[in-house]
Model the fold of this input.
Amino acid sequence: MATLPQLPQKIYQMIAGYSDDDAAEQLTNDPVFTQIIGTPALVSQPSLSRFFRRFDPTSIEQLKQANQELLDKIH
Done:
């Protein structure tokens, strides 16, 4: 399965205080973000929006489950 850069990008943006998808445009060539994610450039705001619009109730539940598994490992 190919790694999708959208999810890690969104997570790191949120951690850094850039919660809006519009921040992707400002950060497109940010050297810190591109190095952390391991891509030459970040995905655009429209790409982030398309990615999250594809989520359905099943994929949301899978993300919740993955989050819970990570929290269980931490505790």
Remarks:
- The chain has one domain: 6-74.
- The helical segments are 6-15, 23-27, 31-37, 45-53, 57-74.
